[in-house]
């Protein structure tokens, strides 16, 4: 089996992320392995930076709190909203107005269902 162009593009995009290494184990299978010493929260924020996200809308709380430490050190701005629905609407409006990716964040449970 040969590697398709889309698979190659996906591997190249993954390799471009800071803190991520790609390893082709066989022609049929490729794995993305995180670099040692990086948390899931750091990986997510670095991924957002890598795709050009410059603002996220949301409310800190509960399960999402660990994302705010690497976000604080990032160039990505956080816009605090009063309700999760506001975050979803703000991200949608931002995307429509700018043509860029709109991102909203909320905690698990009721926070996520409010999006």
Automatic annotation (TrEMBL):
- Per UniProt, residues of the Thiamine pyrophosphate enzyme N-terminal TPP-binding domain are 39-115
SUPFAM superfamilies, per this entry? Thiamin diphosphate-binding fold (THDP-binding)
GO CC terms:
acetolactate synthase complex
From the Swiss-Prot or TrEMBL record, what is one GO molecular function term? acetolactate synthase activity
Its Enzyme Commission number? 2.2.1.6
Q: Which InterPro entries does the record associate with it?
A: THDP-binding, Thiamin_PyroP_enz_TPP-bd_dom, TPP_enz
Gene Ontology biological process: isoleucine biosynthetic process; L-valine biosynthetic process
Q: Which UniProt keywords apply?
A: Transferase
Q: What is this protein called?
A: Acetolactate synthase large subunit
The scientific name of the source species is uncultured Friedmanniella sp
